[in-house]
Write a structure and sequence with these properties.
By secondary structure, the protein is of the alpha+beta class. It has a two-stranded antiparallel ribbon with strand order 1-4. Strands 2-3 form a two-stranded antiparallel sheet. Strands 5-8 form a two-stranded antiparallel ribbon. The longest helix is centred in the last third of the chain and has 33 residues.
Length: about 260
């Protein structure tokens, strides 16, 4: 199996993207040994013509990893009903293979078929077989609301429930997965911890560094539900909370940089 190998019958590309070289001789059984001859070639496009020197067919091999084609010939032998020919060999996959690669091979059997109407040249083509290195972690995510649909409306103070579904469609685990959702500035996040995950607010709703303290003396407090002192204290607490949130976010950013380095 090697990159660019082809269907032995149609000569179309099999779709192999990696090399899995031959690592041993081909062993055939089920037929008398003296009737079996195995030919090897370094020519990936070798035909069945043993007389064509360009095909480079040989029965003597010193480096099996260089072999690109093989052919098993039954010398002057007629397969009877019930006869079974088996053959086996070893291949060696190289180390450190990347994900998303595949290797395929297939073979054809060419024979003279003795029919009632006469003898014809016939063939049987095997289905291709192969192997794959699998897919790396492939993550997809979907965010949806169970209370309102897209474009729906919500009242002030109403709690919204969002569901995010994350799937790993790859063949390996996705470790240290982080889900980052930007929350609109006019919403407040209500965090809840789960059994298999932990929620942490890392994205500040407002950039506190750009917040300017209001001119408290210019405000008409006569119709305000809160006094000037109460409002100043609330503003101070909000600013401190946003500052802490910004620090957590900055820390998280640095952690992600370290994880990727």
């Amino acid at each position: 199996m090697f990159k660019g190998n082809k269907d032995v019958d149609t000569l179309t590309d099999l779709g192999s993207t990696m090399n899995i070289p031959l690592a041993s001789e081909i062993i055939a059984s089920g037929i008398p040994e003296e009737k079996i001859k195995v030919y090897y070639s370094t020519n990936e496009n070798a035909t069945r013509d043993l007389k064509n020197a360009d095909n480079n067919w040989t029965t003597i091999v010193t480096d099996y990893s260089s072999i690109k084609s093989y052919m098993i010939v039954l010398d002057n032998y007629t397969m009877q009903c019930g006869d079974i020919l088996k053959f086996s060999y070893k291949s060696k996959a190289p180390a450190n293979l990347a994900y998303n690669n595949s290797a395929y091979e297939m073979y054809g059997v060419y024979f003279r078929n003795n029919k009632d109407t006469g003898t014809i040249e016939d063939k049987a083509i095997a289905t291709k077989i192969g192997l794959t290195t699998g897919k790396e972690a492939v993550i997809d995510a979907k965010l949806e609301s169970k209370k309102i649909g897209e474009g729906g409306s919500v009242k002030a103070g109403e709690e919204l429930s969002y569901v995010i579904t994350v799937n790993n469609n790859g063949s390996i685990n996705a470790e240290n997965t982080t889900i980052n959702i930007e929350i609109p500035s006019n919403l407040e996040y209500a965090a809840k911890d789960g059994e298999d995950y932990k929620v942490r607010t890392i994205m500040p709703l407002v950039d506190y560094s750009n917040m300017k303290e209001p001119d408290w003396d210019s405000i008409d407090w006569s119709n305000s539900p809160m006094s000037k002192d109460e409002m100043m204290e609330a503003w101070k607490k909000q600013t401190e909370a946003l500052k802490q949130q910004q620090e957590e976010y900055n820390k998280w950013v640095e952690e992600q940089k370290g994880a990727r380095s």
